[in-house]
Design a protein that fits this description.
By secondary structure, the protein is mostly beta strands. The chain is built from one helix and 22 strands. The protein has three domains: 3-73, no CATH class; 76-285 and 296-303, no CATH class; 304-363, no CATH class.
Amino acid sequence: MLAHELADGSDGAADFDGATTFSWASKSGSTYTLTRSPCTTSFRVRSGVRVRMGGFPVYCTGKITVDAGGKLDWDGDAGGDGTSGLGGAGAAGLPAGAFLGSAAGGDGGSVDHDAVVGSDIANSVGGNGGAGGNAADPGASGGTATAPAASRGNTRTMRALLEGCAIGNSAGTPTLTGLAGGAGGGGGGGNHLALDSGGGGGAGGGIVGIACKELENNGTISANGGAGGAPFGAGKGGAGGGAGRIGVICGALSGTGNITALGGAGGTGSSDGVDGDAIILIASARPDGAQIWDGNAFFSAVDSVDVTFPDGWEYENASGLDAYQIRLAAPVVTSSDGPVSVWVSAISLTGFTIQASGVFTGQVAWETKGD
């Protein structure tokens, strides 16, 4: 890992204990919200404390720790609940920081207006919003998250993960494209002839960017879409907002916590938002322990170590290259959609990649030997 990716540590040690304050974060009760990108030497989120990313990446020259019961997130807000004759308000989209924000949910339908469509969002690395449920009156569709064009650059690079932008070339002109989170959920249907009303749609999740020497997560790191609001009477709930994205670059990853980029849950009779993804790059030190993933995740680890392969691995030469692939004959990670592929690719004599991708919930464990 390159030292400049971790910044200079000029903000020192940060211990989010629910009492300490920082010049670069606001505080309300036990919830903090970042107001700029901190450059820390250590960063700890204590149990019972929530740190909202605020649209800013976190840099740490040492260890980031999320204790059990702690949360580090940029989740979309939930839609409002419907009340008698009044549809629930759609959640406002997340504001932009260093990253762009997310899209708003639509209002629920009621006696005097139809349900409102969830807001679309461009240059998104997140998911679509869900659709509001149909009651006597129809629910509204979810917003659409449109990815940047290929000419805008790769959204899975280190720059994209940490700075929320891609560098490309559009019509012969170098282009810097800011990246955004998920789309908003649609409002739930109500009834023009009665007091039944729909719940508001959830907002899209934002982008979480983390760069540190070591990450120990025993709590929650998330960029989830907001949940849809509940209906009133025979109305339908608002839909969930689309998930955002999580990008982590670290030297070692440990802990048994959750890293999630999930679409928000729909209210009664409405659909969930669409999942985003979590992209983890372990750039130098040996990973250890087991991670628990929930959602659509992309994971890779790069290291200069020797590997011990278990029985059941198959060898495959990469034609004409000084590289090879070894695939598991029987993958050890499974999901409701079936087995998830797990493979190892040695890209040089001094490095290899361990990668697991797919939609799954479970433990990913591996063993490496070396420095």
